[in-house]
Amino acid sequence: PFYQGARFLTAATRLAQAPPDTGCEVAFAGRSNAGKSSAINVLCHQNGLARTSKTPGRTQQLIFFSLDESRRLVDLPGYGYAKVAVAIKSQWQGLMSNYLQRRESLAGLVVLMDIRHPLTEYDRQILAWGEGSRLPLLVLLTKADKLRRGPALAVRDQVARTLRDRGEVQVELFSAFARQGVETVQHCLDRWLEI
Ligand code: GDP
């Protein structure tokens, strides 16, 4: 599978440090602890690729992984819980808004939300930047294994209803543990990256 070839390319604390803005890339955003690293690792069949961690709010960096010479995946910084320092939050806002609004090679945005806490203020901020840039959107409701099927589908429908007036948007259940939704995500990325 294509994503198995993903490898770490570089980390950037400012947009100016990002790799050249050519080819195309897909970015993953999610609040700390949403399950973003676990999702990236499962999608790429590599356990140590994105670092999973229980400590919220690590360094604010854009992490670039290359798939081939012209395609990339990007792990966007999350931030922790409500108590995050104002300085960290404003640095995060600067980096994220810059990236989401200016990056020409960005072909689509994956937003990961814990299925038990969807559409937080953090998520809404990211969705607003994505909408401003007319980015196709894939919302993954993570840790879907934590809910039974019925309640999980009810959350999916509710989130889809909330986002229905946006442009291209898809909402899916996802579980890294149960490997649920992996192929759906890969198909979506294939389309965005024209694989
Ligand atoms: P990140 O901070 O968004 O990168 O989140 P991580 O991938 O590090 O995961 C955060 C926590 O959620 C960890 O304790 C993971 O073990 C747990 N987690 C991640 N994916 C799943 C999943 O599919 N199901 C369940 N039940 N827990 C998960």
Task: Name the strands of the widest sheet in spatial order.
Answer: 1-3-4-2-5-6-7
Share of residues in helices:
25-40%
Class based on secondary structure composition and strand pairing: alpha/beta
CATH class: Alpha Beta
What is the total domain count? 1
CATH architecture: 3-Layer(aba) Sandwich
> How would you sum up the global shape?
globular
Q: What is the CATH homology-level superfamily?
A: P-loop containing nucleotide triphosphate hydrolases
Number of strands: 7
Low-confidence stretches: none
Bound ligands, named by name, code or SMILES: guanosine-5'-diphosphate
Q: Classify the oligomer.
A: single chain
Question: Which value, in Å, is the CA radius of gyration?
Answer: 15 Å
The pLDDT mean sits at 92
Put simply, the count of helices is 5
Estimate the strand proportion: 15-25%
Distance between the termini: 11 Å
- SSE order, as H and E? EEHEEHEHEHEH
Q: Output the CATH topology.
A: Rossmann fold
GO molecular function: GTP binding; metal ion binding
Function: Necessary for normal cell division and for the maintenance of normal septation.
Protein name: Probable GTP-binding protein EngB
Family: Belongs to the TRAFAC class TrmE-Era-EngA-EngB-Septin-like GTPase superfamily. EngB GTPase family.
Architecture blueprint of SSEs:
Blueprint: E1 7-12, E2 24-30, H1 36-43, E3 62-66, E4 71-75, H2 86-102, E5 106-114, H3 121-132, E6 137-142, H4 149-162, E7 169-173, H5 182-193
Parallel strand pairs: 2-4, 2-5, 5-6, 6-7
Antiparallel strand pairs: 1-3, 3-4
Helix pairs in contact: 2-3
Guanosine-5'-diphosphate (GDP) binds near residues 37, 143 and 177.
